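Lab channel / #folding
Pinned by the channel admin:
"Please post every new chain as: sequence first, then the structure tokens as a reply. Keep commentary short and put observations after the output so the thread stays searchable."

First post following the new format, from NK:
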Amino acid sequence: MTKTALLIIDMINNFDFDAGEALAEKTSNIIGPILDLKKTFNEKDMPVIYINDHYNLWQADFEKIMDYCRNEKSEEIINRISPEENKDYFLIKPKHSAFYGTALHTLLQDLHVDTLVITGVAGNICVLFTANDAYMREYKLIIPEDCIASNSDQDNEYALTMMRNVLTADIKPSGELHF
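Reply from TO:
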């Protein structure tokens, strides 16, 4: 029997970088589908794991990171997608992959997870690097095309193509998934 976890990557974000405004706009479009998946996972008591950049706040919890990231570009996104205390898991990461320098693999093993639904930003960087590391650890991958965003549509399409063709990820839209 497969056990699936939902990963939500870098959605708590200040978008304070070149192309940050464009990414914030594209991120707003993926919140609805991600929240729909999260609701399904919560209803079925399946794990939801947020993995986020730490913004050099090494002693931070998700509240401190959200406070640090709140600004005009991020406020609405953070308010809609923030983790729920005592319900969701939350890990901070030092680099692009959710596996690098984190306890993610240990947590997934402890939860007996063999399938990952990977969502978030940026699709062509942190989502792609996480998917690569997950593939090398032999997780089955589901990366709904409507649940990742990158700075440009071209970069997002390239990342999806790589994840489908190289990592054998299922990239169908979230509405077509059944758990």
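NK: The radius of gyration is 15 Å.
TO: also worth noting, The chain has a mean pLDDT of 94.
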